[in-house]
Amino acid sequence: MKKVSLLALMLVPFAANAAGTYYSGYTGVYQSPQSPYAAQTYASRQSGYANRYNTSSSYTSRYNTGTQNAGAQRATTGTATTGATTQNTASNARTGFWLDAGITHQIGQWHMEMNQSGSILSYDNLAWNVFDLSAGYAFNAGNTTLQFDAGLQYGMQWGESPMYDDDISNGGFLVTTWVDANNNNNVIGDQIGHAMSIGTSQGGNMLGFNVGFGLTDIFKIGNVTFTPSIGYRYLKYKVETENNYGLSVDTTACFQVDGSDEIQCDPAIVVNLSDGKQQIIWRGDINDSMDVPGNATSINTGSTYYYHQPGVSHSYETTWAGPYIAMDMNYLINQNNSVNGRIEFGFPGYASTGDQPYRFDWAHPKSVEDEAGMFSAFHFGAGANWVTAITDSVALSLGVTYDYYTVGDVDAKTYLNGNFYTDWYNQILNSDPWLGDETAMLNPDGGDATAINIKNLESECPGWVCSTSGEIESFYKSLGVRVGINAKF
């Protein structure tokens, strides 16, 4: 027996967290002209100080500050109002500055699958502590009130989170194809590599910002006011894996156990024979043992081994950035309390750069890069807040947030170490039996399979960069709890 296409694994590209969150503030709504200004509490004095959402990790607060006296001013301007409807004109619009800050604790999951290489990478129970700061301004423009807002957030990973890298349940990678040494057309079978590793992720970080533009309280249904807006959101996070434990297993023949759905595969046992040839052995039947030829000189298990990486084994930096549309909703409970909600739909682009240990030389420059343009990904965000007044100009908020990012058919690039393969190629070329005869070494019939594959790899991956279309599918989701404080001016 002999082996061909030893390097198919090198053609396999790999790729590689947290998202924004929402919290809303408090909302001032119509007050009866019979309510004197001096008797009003914070929620009414804000004159429509609309505490719109902040995403604790990516959604910035849109707390609009009102400068008018909703009761006294409407009484003097003669604006017609009822308990169920409010005339939306410049005379009763919410205007002014607002400032908001808060801390959110999020639990998230980042999961990605590689279609052709058959691999799954997942960071589960990612915990983040995120600080956010945002500000905005609302002003009258004719019969409409416009608002601008901007926010910044910074997050740090909290505690340890598990990571698993699964090349077993979602497939495997071709290591080599075995053929009959006496008949190259007689293919015996493929040797498939499988691996599973589990590590610890800690010390990650995230950075995000957003800018938005909206029409304040553009319409009202009952006691709920609605503010549509558009904007741009950017989120970038980095996670690393340390103390990674794994098992690599090369398999050959697979069998289905009689009477069940269980599949068993033999490990790749390679026998070196006295005549210089190699033979792979496995069970002819699931109950048979493996017979070693009598002229065997040595036996090895190929790539079947256990490993431990105490340092950084995986490192990924991922960005979601693009436009969004959103709708804020504000409901006043009483003069001191309100409930807010937000729904956001985003259409970001996606980019992820990875440094991981799947190169044959285990070096760690940039290993993989995955990119999809703007509008290729989708983001859904939602949140709700309860807001209560502390003073006439300061309020406390408590809320929950949810985010879901997803993208598919992302193009992937794998960056190979050209020096490593070139040195390997030259070593084969200058060794026995080729002794510098490159033509004979690259002869498809009788040449060196490893050298041939290196040459093909160089041709298929210009500049030692291998490209694969539609390789990556990925999602990130998070659930958070936020506490914040905001003020109007």
- What structural class results from the helix and strand content? mainly beta
Beta strand count: 21
- Describe the main β-sheet briefly: 18 strands, antiparallel
CATH fold-level assignment: Lipocalin
Task: Report how far the terminal alpha carbons are from each other.
Answer: 82 Å
Which runs of at least 5 residues are low in confidence (pLDDT < 50)? 1-93
**What is the subunit organization of this protein?**
single chain
What is the CATH top level name?
Answer: Mainly Beta
Overall number of structural domains: 1
Which percent bin holds the helix content?
A: under 10%
Task: Provide the CATH architecture.
Answer: Beta Barrel
Q: What is the mean predicted local confidence, pLDDT?
A: 79
N-to-C SSE series? EHHEEEEEEEEEEEEEEEEEEEHHHE
Shape: elongated
Number of helices: 5
CATH superfamily: OMPT-like
Can you give a write-up of this model?
With 489 residues, the protein is mostly beta strands. It has one domain (2-268, 303-416, 461-488): Lipocalin. Helix content is 8%, strand content 54%. The chain has 5 helices and 21 strands. It has helices spanning 42-45, 72-77, 418-429, 438-441, 449-460; strands at 2-4, 96-114, 119-141, 144-157, 161-166, 173-180, 183-201, 205-215, 219-221, 224-256, 263-267, 269-273, 278-281, 296-300, 305-332, 337-346, 349-355, 368-372, 378-389, 394-415, 465-488. Strand 6 and strand 7 form a beta hairpin. Helix 3 (418-429) packs antiparallel against helix 5 (449-460). The radius of gyration is 31 Å and the shape is elongated. The N and C termini lie far apart (82 Å). Mean pLDDT is 79; it is low at 1-93.
